Amino acid sequence: MSNSEIHEPAGRIENLRQKFLKLYGRHPEGIWRAPGRVNLIGEHTDYNLGYVLPFAIDKNALVAIRRKAQFEHSANELNLASTYGADEDPKVTSVPLDGLTPQSVSGWAAYPTAVVWALNQLDDVEISGFELLVDSDVPVGSGLSSSHALEVSTIVALKDLYDLGLSHTQMAQLTQRAENEFVGAPTGIMDQSASLMSRAENALFLDCRSMESRAVPLPLAQNDAVVLVIDTRVEHSHVDGGYAARRRSCEQAAEILRVPSLRDVGTVDELQVIEDELVRRRAKHIVTENQRVLDTVQALEAGDLQAVGKLLYQSHVSMRDDYEISCEELDTAVEASLAAGAIGARMTGGGFGGSSIALIHREQIEAVSQAVLEAFAQAGFKAPNIFTVVADQGAGRA
Ligand code: GLA
Q1: Positions marked active-site
Q2: Is the model's pLDDT at 114 over the cut of 90?
Q3: Atom of ligand 1 at shortest distance to CA of 350?
């Protein structure tokens, strides 16, 4: 796939190559890219082994890498730097690989390190030191998976460089292990999968139990529709308690129902035996959300965007009222989008901040953006970042 087809300006790649040379004094062996994602629908269903429907977006983490030779100084050390916010030479973080233990690295450097750690847990793999420079335009803390983009770009690079022969599913599982065990965030498998497996102009319909997936065409162009992202700039983090607490409630519900996961619950009626009202409501979100994913796939295949729009909003209401992971800024963005004529809108991603999406007709971009900006100003919120996204191709060599 050529660079133009993956919406990556060649200039950005060349720029990174030059910056790498300037910083480390050598050329990188290559540059790899991994996109962030928007989840169209299917929220918090992944760790309940249910269905998700995300797509990769035209915002990427690019990593330039050069492996160190055995005789080099600090051969078994990672040197990690980012162009983010760096006017002059980026600051280099050094991480020795000998005796590396989970949660011993903080900040963004934890993500590429976590991937190396996870790979080195495999019997037949030994990754040693390398130099890395990352350049990412996935907004940090926006709920668009900036951290997963970084992990995925690192793993696709190492897979190529070490000829590891890993499948997409194996790479998704390894990056999930990196995130869960090394970084310490109890997240599911959706974000990595979207970044690895997506196809341009399609959403990725993934069954998180079997890991079977298929591309579902997004009928946007023929309907003159686009997806608008509203980044509320309320930063979220999944290392914090809210995400883990939701996950625990789901596990509790599955235990009470004596099923391996909430994926195995077919109807809301089956939840009546759960006495704890809060746990019941959390489980209700998961059961209804799984059905909404299936319904959305059908509606997309029928080219019925109005039906998709309704499902998006139902999903938002469920997250707001039953799963309680929305916030005032996200609700304001969703309601203002709909009032200004959006076909559908919902918060996307883990919640507690981050972004919402609105499915709109192309000619509404201005009106919807304006309406959201005004609603935010009126409520006294920080101005959001608003932009359209394109469903892009999954990760690979840039
Ligand atoms: C975060 C996690 C995902 C998923 C979503 C919620 O993005 O990384 O695994 O659980 O939240 O759908």
Answers
A1: 191
A2: yes
A3: 11
- Ligand 1 centroid vs 256 CA: distance in angstroms? 24
CA distance 7 to 274: 48
Query: Which candidate, 313, 332, 305, places its Cα nearest to that of 203?
Result: 305
Question: How much of the chain exceeds pLDDT 90, in percent?
Answer: 93
Q: Taken in order 128, 133, 135, 141, is the CA torsion positive or negative?
A: positive
Q: Which residue has the higher pLDDT, 11 or 166?
A: 166
Ligand 1 atom closest to Cα of 179? 8
- Residue the block writes with tokens 């129902």: 257
Q: Is residue 224 pLDDT above 50, yes or no?
A: yes
Backbone angles phi, psi at 113, to 5 degrees: -65, -40
* 321 to 79, 109, 131, 277, 312: CA distances (angstroms): 45, 36, 46, 13, 14
At residue 203's C-alpha, the angle toward residues 53 and 395, to 5°, is: 105
Whether 187 lines ligand 1, by a CB cut-off of 6 Å, is yes
DSSP 208-219: TTT--EEEEE-T
pTM (global) more than 0.85? yes
Name residue 87's amino acid: D
Distance 382 CA to ligand 1 centre (A): 24
Mean pLDDT of the chain: 95
Q: How far apart are CA 337 and CA 70, in angstroms?
A: 56
Contact 180, 117 (CB under 8 A): no
The residue contributing the CA closest to ligand 1 atom 2 is 187
List the domains of the chain with CATH numbers: 3-215 (3.30.230.10), 219-389 (3.30.70.890)
